[in-house]
Here is the input.
Amino acid sequence: MRILLVKMSSMGDIFHTFPAISDINKQFPNAEIDWVVEDSFKEIVEWHPQVRKAIPIHLRRWVKQRDKQSWQEFKAWRKTLRSENYDYVIDAQGLLKSAVIAKCALGKGIDGYDKDSAREPITHWFYKRTHVVDKNQHAVERTRQLVGKALGYTPELQLNFGINQNFTHIQKNPRKLIFIIGTSWVTKLWATSEWQALTQIAIDAGFSVEIIWGSSDEQAIADEIINACPKATRPPQRLSITTIAEKLVEAAGVIGLDTGFSHLAGALETPTIALYGATSPTKVGLIGDHTHNLQLSEALDCMPCHKRQCKWLPENSRNTPACMAGINAGQVWLALQKKLPPC
Here is the structure.
């Protein structure tokens, strides 16, 4: 059985798909699974041992540039894709762009969400077989159920992300914590003063703290934290995804925001606390007993807004929105203590 899975982004969505790959392998150990993914996430997809081939695509760049060269590159990519023939093509993203890409493949028809289940209902016109999947479930379960219905099985209750075996060479450090301070949305950021307070609590408790950063703005925040707490550290340069994964495996615990690396920590089964405000963890939060999605105990009327700009703050403001400002360092530390194993 040859299967093509289309789920191109984002980082968190990639991790949410891993359990479905593990399910396929359990049901069909000889299945060959290829996966169309944005080039920047090819490295991640290749972690799963049941993925035969990650097929990188530069769709974001092609759509942004929209020039003759991009069109020629896309046609060459499509020709290469169509050199393979699949028994099943599954659009696990449920967006117009992913449905169009799935349509480029050769196979016996595309499986996808029905019009009431897909994120973009128009996609059902592209599919040969559509499947009803409750939109109110977590993204991990939605993907598992879609793939199970497409291939004719019911997923078991237990989750298996299937990537830990890539990091068995990493030794756990029971006194090290990783803080993930950055995210692509300003509305998801937590106050630097709270990160400083949390860092000091951790250091006073005998832990070392390493702060992961991925942009110049995040590097500046990390430096502010370190200026207040000189015993904390940060990598001197931006790290690869695999190197960050190794650090997350090494750590006793991780505290982060609603961002891909927090989801990665959860997928690697490291105790992880993720802070949520503008977004909701109900459908896309961290999953598993070793994780905790922390929000205000009493939600504001505007939560979750799912907006990149807080309506209560001036335009382009980098101040912390009230939904995040209401979470304090003491609450976060207490939540982490409940997930950490006994020393």
Notes: The chain has a mean pLDDT of 96.
